Amino acid sequence: MAKRMTETELLGEVQRAISFTDSDDGAMSVNQLSDELAIGPASVRDGLRVLISEGVVTPCRVKRKMMNGKVQHVIAYTKVKSLEDKK
C-alpha cells in the first residue's frame, strides 16, 4: 500500500518540481507534474490551487508537442519570479 502524502509534503513536492523543471519555458502541466511526482492529477490540481492562492506559482500557456506531432497551447504552471530573481 502506497504511503499517503500530507498536504505539506504535496505542496513541497509540487513546488520543487516546478522550480527545477528542465523544460525550456520553465513550466509544467498537470500531467507532467503528475508523472514526475507519481501522484494523481486531482492531487496535483489541489496542490496547485493552494500554491496559486499563496502566490508561489502562476498559470500560463505554453506550447507542447502532442503525440501526433502537432504543437498545441496547453495550460501549465510556473514559479512566480521574486524580486531577487528579477535582478
How are the SSEs placed, and which strands pair?
Layout (H helix, E strand, L loop, with lengths): L6 H13 L7 E2 L1 H8 L3 H13 L3 E9 L5 E9 L3 H4 L1
Helix pairs in contact: 1-3, 2-3
Walk me through this protein's architecture:
With 87 residues, the protein is an alpha+beta fold. The chain is 44% helix and 23% strand. The protein contains 4 helices and 3 strands; from the N terminus they run αβααββα. The protein has a 3-stranded antiparallel β-sheet with strand order 1-3-2. Strand 2 and strand 3 form a beta hairpin. The longest helix is centred in the N-terminal third of the chain and has 13 residues. It starts with 6 loop residues before the first helix and ends with a helix.
Describe what is shown at a glance.
This protein has four helices and three strands; from the N terminus they run H-E-H-H-E-E-H. With 87 residues, it is of the alpha+beta class.
Reading side by side through the largest sheet, how are the strands ordered?
Answer: 1-3-2
Helix content: 40-55%
Query: What is the CA-based Rg, rounded?
Result: 13 Å
Q: Terminal Cα separation, in Å?
A: 46 Å
The assigned structural class equals alpha+beta
Total beta strand runs: 3
Please report which band the strand proportion falls in: under 5%, 5-15%, 15-25%, 25-35%, 35-45% or over 45%.
Answer: 15-25%
* Mean pLDDT level: 84
Tally the helices: what do you get? 4
Contiguous low-pLDDT stretches (5 residues minimum) are none
